[in-house]
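Predicting holo structure, 2-(butylsulfanyl)adenosine bound.
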Amino acid sequence: MTVAEPSAPLRSIEVAALSPAEAASEHAALGAEIAGHDAAYYREDAPVVTDADYDALRRRYEAIEARFPGLKGEDSLSERVGAAPLEKFGKVPHKVPMLSLDNAFSESDVEEFVARVKRFLGLAAEEEVAFTSEPKIDGLSCSLRYVGGRFEVAATRGDGAEGEDVTANVRTIADIPERLHGHGVPDVIDVRGEIYMAKADFEALNARQAAAEEKVFANPRNAAAGSLRQLDPSITASRPLKFFAYAWGEATSLPAETQHGMVEAFARWGFTTNPLMVRVTTAADLLAHYRSIEVERATLPYDIDGVVYKVDRLDLQRRLGFVSRSPRWAIAHKFPAEQATTVLEAIDIQVGRTGALTPVAKLTPVTVGGVVVANATLHNEDEIARKDIRVGDTVVVQRAGDVIPQVVRVIAEKRPEGSKPYKFPHVCPVCKSHAVRDVDIKTGKVDVVRRCTGGLICPAQAVERIRHFVSRNAFDIEGLGDENVQLLFDAGLIHNPADIFTLHQHRDAVRKAFFLKREERARQREEQTGRVRKKVLSEEERNFLDIENMFIAIDNRRKISFGRFLFALGIRDVGEVTAKALAKAFITVDAFSAAVSAAVPGRPGEAWFRLLSIKKIGTISAEALADAISDRTRTIGSPETILRRVFEAAKLNSGQRTELRLEHKGDIEIIAFLNSAAANRPSPEFQTLANVPDVGPVAAASLCEFVAEDHNWLLFQKLLGQVQIVPEEAQTALMESPVAGKIIVFTGSLQKMSRNEAKAVAERLGAKVGSSVSRKTDLVVAGAEAGSKLDDARKIGVKVISEEEWLSMITE
Ligand code: IVH
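Done. Tokens:
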């Protein structure tokens, strides 16, 4: 890197005396010079000017801009950070979602997978289905869009629906062709596969990083991810990334009719494909291949964490389709977790955003499967008691893929003398409020989780809530990582998520907080290493860059989809799926708010959930029981008689009666239980909310609890004033399907597909599949030898179609 000579002659003139032309020329020259120094500092780690000189350049540059604001063009340094353009990765929607894989951990899981595939396709056990089997590469998946055979866009997986645009970085990967050649290249195709770093390249990179006192990576996968997510493609270019093609997304045509044919086409077009892929037809052969790869694993030049099996024929893949986030036609057979033994030095209690106290084992660092592990999860207090884990114990630690390491068991022989069972704290370690175990409304049992009762007065909960709010699948505010959230919280600059959007009003205070933190960190580092830090950018300059970076990231997220917004609020039991479902069902914030507010007064109490938690009792039976027991005053008789009448009135079958009796011994107890459940039953408004698909009574109750708290409601309103919410993308495909929203009943035996497959297809097209015919049924599909359901349909006048008609309807 050559750095421009300082433009000395101009600099002798005071800024105030510069003519516009002189200012423009000096501004440009200074810009280039500073950029050169930045690059030398950040990329090459080889600064060429002193701290003071750099500062002087920067000050003059800004003074010129202050006097001639017109010079603040797009490539002004105030728009850049370090050597990299301050342009965060854009988002790329995946036309076909990028899914994950279901996992198999044992041989019987694999046999079950093969059997399941055959069952679904309606094949007999002895009929053959071909599968491909190939290594599961431990990297990160990437989707590469080719238009007219030319590489256009590359995106990471992201949340599966949309990823980050990493096009510029991917261009630097030698394995990824710029143009596809050979026959069969479609007009448009998303080629998908794994970006990874070879083991040897990873070792060499870490050695280089360590020598330069830069971050070293825990494993090749992290190194690959860190290298790909660089803002500066020239850094990615200097990191040796590789790519295997193994899948595809949207394509205007396909060059083959099988999985292995597709992979062969990828190879022909110029991609690297994995040479260890085979095609076999039985579960036994899949397992044999798995074992051979397991043996080869250590000598492979790249990390793998299992083997992936896929149904070979694409027509069968299409029929099999997907269940939630993974395809039915593929499975990942994972290698067993790796284990190591070490000493448990202490048990830390962390407090999460919902107040959950989570025990974390602090371990003497140990390498497990190539990664240094110093912390492991202990799950909860019952687990600690069950495994009798004590401080000072020698324990077995296990790590599987990217899962959090766990303490599996204690090695009893190595227990130090005099050790005592661990006592789980009953007060919150952060705010000292009581920590209690609730009755879990899902199971009616005492919750395994102990929670701090401090609510918003507990700083740990507030910090975790803000962290969740800015996290990847929520608001995704880069530059506001865990450390900065803590820093800003400690400095009293943010108390809740809404404060993030007004933070720019306290720029000076933010700068000061960052500055103090940086000073403290640098001092610590100097103490630890005995090395004096090199200063090129002044501390203030660096702060300035970090902070501006953060403000831009915040501004970039002032527009957000409704689903992400709801998820970001961190409401208990409202995960990503539920949040999206709510956003799709209500579309507007107003409709959502109205529905939740209406549900609040009539939300059910604990006793109602205890009734729902009884096996075989669903909402319908619970409602019927509540009606019946409320009517009981008309019956005079013994508890036995009353209960019998109630059961009859509620149309409870014998299985349901048995379950109720298992839970509560004695007729009087059951009556009392049903009485309290009935007194706690939800209103119709609550049921409407609970009936939204993917919501259910538990999440609905948590939503009500959330908005019933004034401070939450206030936060919700405040945020609405700060961000712009865009409706969740409507699922157009579903809307257009001829059976969307219809209730369909299948009866008789179908010839072309199994009952399960027919059900899956109908659901994919937005229909609901019922098990019996009623007036609500829209359509009955009658196969051969259809019986009573067909009669029912004819009686009530529900439309009946044949299997052939059904097939032509769904393939239109
Ligand atoms: S197939 C629709 N094949 O594993 C399924 N995935 O756990 C598409 N992976 O996100 C994936 N090696 O990143 C497939 N040979 C392979 C793979 C592989 C690694 C990753 C991929 C995926 C994850 C799922």
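The longest helix spans residues 20-42.
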